[in-house]
Specification:
GO terms for molecular function: oxidoreductase activity. InterPro entries: 11-beta-HSD, NAD(P)-bd_dom_sf, Sc_DH/Rdtase_CS, SDR_fam. It catalyses: cortisone + NADPH + H(+) = cortisol + NADP(+). With 288 residues, the chain is an alpha/beta fold. It has one domain (33-120, 130-282): NAD(P)-binding Rossmann-like Domain (Rossmann fold, 3-Layer(aba) Sandwich). The chain is 51% helix and 14% strand. It has helices at residues 2-21, 44-55, 67-80, 97-109, 132-160, 180-202, 220-226, 237-249, 261-266, 272-281; strands at residues 35-39, 59-64, 84-89, 114-117, 163-169, 208-214, 254-257. The termini are far apart. Bound molecules: 2-acetamido-2-deoxy-beta-D-glucopyranose (2 copies). One 2-acetamido-2-deoxy-beta-D-glucopyranose (NAG) binds at residues 133, 137.
Length: 288
């Protein structure tokens, strides 16, 4: 009886601590009027982030490749209550694009509080076929352009004590099948931005880097690609977008969506061979 009582007590304390650490401390006012530059803003999670930022009354510069789609997203953002919205079409495989985009945002918004790096290049979801050229191109789009955008914006973010949000994936923490090049670009982001986070702290620069680890999200592109190939249920893009925005506003170093990805990442290296068997069981072995 006494033991049961003690265990109950311990469970209550743990539940209380979890509730405390996971409580929602998000204050929407912290984003009202914030100056945001958002990449990959035309579809998927980026588009949903644009709408959430608009509802919170941010001032936004949207960028992606396709002008007609950006125009539509901009119109919806204005309807939803964004203070100001601008867009600039840009292809992040071009080495000049990052600097041009940051300069455009600076000119339009007069500064920057949030830089949200979210765009990705189109990549096949299949077994490695030896296309090294594709890997090189994807590295430019998913990694080198992130570094260039962050470098161009860092002096501005330092001034505003801003936030740099880097959208990544579970496969940027734990490798999964059919994502060789993609996984490599996302691991590279973790290495670069985690090292940069150290340096910002050492230099006493108050710029937060929020690294976002996302699972399978129900965007059109992801659903199309993974159909018949993975046995996992996707999570909604709008909720993923809101979780990212809240995490960045709260200046968290990492966010995980869905939340249980954090447990998987923490346990990553405990039982590697069992881990790989479990991971492979979620993928269609007969697909190429
Ligand atoms: C390499 O990939 C890029 C981008 O997909 C493409 O434009 C280029 O033609 C490719 N080059 C070769 C040699 O395949
Ligand atoms: C696995 O992939 C094969 C080949 O694409 C497909 O025919 C089959 O339906 C898939 N299996 C499942 C359970 O989705």
């Amino acid at each position: 009886m006494i033991l049961a009582g003690k265990m109950l007590c311990a469970a209550a304390v743990i539940a209380g601590l979890l509730a405390f650490f996971w409580r929602d401390t998000f204050n929407p006012d912290s984003i009202a009027g914030a100056r945001v530059l958002l990449t990959g803003a035309s579809t998927g999670i980026g588009e949903q982030m644009a709408y959430h930022y608009s509802r919170f009354g941010a001032e936004i510069v949207l960028t992606a490749r396709r002008e007609t789609v950006l125009q539509k997203v901009m119109e919806k953002c204005l309807q939803l209550g964004a203070e100001k919205v601008f867009y600039i079409p840009a292809d992040m495989s071009s080495p000049q694009a990052p600097e041009e985009v940051v300069q455009f945002a600076l000119k339009k918004l007069g500064g920057l509080d949030h830089l949200v790096l979210n765009h990705i290049g189109v990549t096949p979801f299949q077994m490695w076929d030896g296309d090294v050229n594709h890997t090189r191109w994807l590295m430019q789009v998913n990694f080198h352009s992130y570094v260039a955008l962050a470098s161009a914006a860092l002096p501005i973010l330092t001034e505003s004590k801003g936030v740099l949000t880097v959208v990544s994936s579970l496969t940027g923490k734990i490798s999964t099948p059919f994502t060789t090049s993609y996984s490599a670009t996302k691991f590279a982001l973790d290495g670069f931005f985690s090292s940069l986070r150290h340096e910002l702290t050492m230099q006493k620069k108050d710029v937060c880097i929020t690294f976002c680890v996302l699972g399978l999200i129900d965007t059109e592109a992801a659903m199309e690609k993974t159909r018949d190939k993975v046995y996992m249920s996707p999570s909604p893009a709008a909720e993923a977008a809101l979780t990212i925005i809240k995490g960045a506003a709260n200046r968290e170093r990492e966010i995980f969506y869905p939340w249980w990805l954090e447990l998987i990442c923490r346990l990553r290296d405990w039982f590697p061979s069992h881990r790989d068997v479990v991971i492979q069981s979620f993928y269609n072995h007969t697909s190429t």
